[in-house]
Amino acid sequence: MSYRLDPLGHLATPFPDKFGIPRQPRLAPHARGVLRLLPPYDRPEAVRGLAAFSHVWLSFIFHQSADTWHPTVRPPRLGGNTRVGVFASRSPFRPNGLGLSLVELVDVDTRDGVVLTFAGVDLVDGTPIVDIKPYVPFVESVPDARGGFVDGTPPTLDVSFSSEALARLTALADSYPHLGALIAEVLAQDPRPAYADDPARVYGVRLYTFDIKWRCDDTHAHVLALDDA
């Protein structure tokens, strides 16, 4: 038996590429996502009462990993070398390519169809969203739950900006007022591959339409420039 899933809409995010996306939701609070619901789901009554909730679950499709799954995967949190079962991970390489992300609900706009704005998104631009459910703290928050190999927060990098990068951020402030904060949040999570350790190497990560150039040592990421992608 097979099942059909129709997208409610496609999430617009700052992340045109998979590289650089935070590995979990809510690690980059300034990463905004906008979802315009498609017909016939774009009826205001379909989201009646949703604004009373601060956070929602987004069910989505790993559309860039479709039809590809592996029984074991190598989580970045374990250094990229140790394998665990795919069902003990949040890897996109799953039998059915379904994902689940907890995000903050910032706005519900029903003036022209339905447009939802979220914060703390961890999804690539254009991700198909197949369901939205409210987060209910009294049943879904388990403070004493075990986190397995991801128990506890990961270490973060200090982030600094060159004078050139700061000047570009100032010039972009009217159009992208939170870009500097978003860059810092993304790079603080150290998106490099686990084996990367060359402090002279210049990396690039794309956010919106910008190519962020940066270097990194063990504890510090330094933003060199913001180029147009």
Automatic annotation (TrEMBL):
GO annotation, biological process: methylation
Signal peptide: none
Keywords assigned by UniProt, alphabetized: Methyltransferase, S-adenosyl-L-methionine, Transferase
Single GO MF annotation: tRNA (L-threonylcarbamoyladenosine(37)-C2) methyltransferase activity
Matches recorded under SUPFAM superfamilies: YaeB-like
InterPro entries with a match to the protein in the record: TrmO-like_N (IPR023370), TrmO_C (IPR041369), UPF0066_cons_site (IPR023368), YaeB-like (IPR040372), YaeB-like_sf (IPR036413), YaeB_N_sf (IPR036414)
Protein's UniProt keywords contain Metal-binding: no
PROSITE patterns assigned: TSAA_1, TSAA_2
Classification via NCBIfam families: tRNA_TsaA
Family: Belongs to the tRNA methyltransferase O family.
Name of the molecule in the record: tRNA (N6-threonylcarbamoyladenosine(37)-N6)-methyltransferase TrmO
Organism field: Chitiniphilus eburneus
Gene that this polypeptide is encoded by: tsaA
